[in-house]
Amino acid sequence: MAGNNTTAACSAPLQRSLNWCQGQPVLPGIRRRIYYTSKQNIVNWPVYSTDTGGRYAFATTTGNFTLKADAVWYYIDVLAEKSTLTSEPQGEAPSQTQLNKLTAVHPGVGAEASAAACYLNNSDNVFLVQDMNGMWRIVGSRFYETKTTVAQDNGQGATGNASTTISVEATDVCPAPFYQGTLTTEDGEMDCSGGNG
Question: DSSP secondary structure string, 67-112?
Fold first, then answer.
């Protein structure tokens, strides 16, 4: 009997219509402040939605990130016009995943920015990025390690730009899942549930 239930669950289609209203703007880019924390700080992760057959059915998680006592999410201010969030497929069926890539350009090369390279390069982190519609996206998964590398450019001549570039690669089951929970930050609790905020 259980086999019949599994067969029924696996034969139910996941496909849905994907509409777009002509004239509806799709705003590109990300906002100027991102958040991050080490995965070692995370006690509980938000839940990925699956159907009864175990297939991932939605790109929006439910629930909150729960951190260890005294742990918080830290922020990094970035140059929005130079920072990007992309996602591309990798692997082959039935094990194909998404490689989510974040390039975050911070406008500074001072001691604090340089120190960031030390702990970001050598720890497994998760990042939260807000798009221009106010929705929050997760870059980093409980299933796979996040690779973070930091490069600095002191600029060239009188007109060059000095910056610190944080590059993140994170494998996940879907393109940068949406997060609608809360964050415990240095400045207190932050609500990530609304768009256009």
Answer: EPTT--BEEEE--GGG-EEEEEEES-TTS-EEEEEEEEEES--SHH
Q: Residue 24 to residues 18, 20, 27, 86: CA-CA distances in angstroms? A: 14, 7, 10, 21
Rounded Cα–Cα distance for residues 107 and 140 (Å): 23
What is the DSSP annotation of 111-159?
Answer: HHHHHHHHHHHTS-EEEEEEBTTS-EEEE--SSSPEEEEEEEE---TTT
d(CA 164, CA 168): 13
Report how far residue 181's alpha carbon sits from residue 134's, in angstroms, rounded to the nearest whole number. 13
- Phi then psi for residue 19, to 5 deg, are -100, 165
The residue extents of the domains of the chain are 28-191
User: In b/e form, how buried is each residue of 51-61, taking b as 16+ CB within 10 angstroms?
Assistant: eeeeeeeebeb
Tens digit of pLDDT for each residue in 63-98? 999 999 999 999 999 999 999 999 999 999 889 999
- Predicted TM-score (pTM) above 0.70: yes
Q: Cα–Cα distance between 118 and 112 in angstroms, integer?
A: 10
Q: What is the pLDDT of residue 50?
A: 82
Cα-to-chain-centroid distance, residue 75: 13
Secondary-structure percent of the chain, ordered helix, strand, coil, rounded to 5: 15, 40, 45
Q: Which residues of the chain have pLDDT under 50?
A: 1
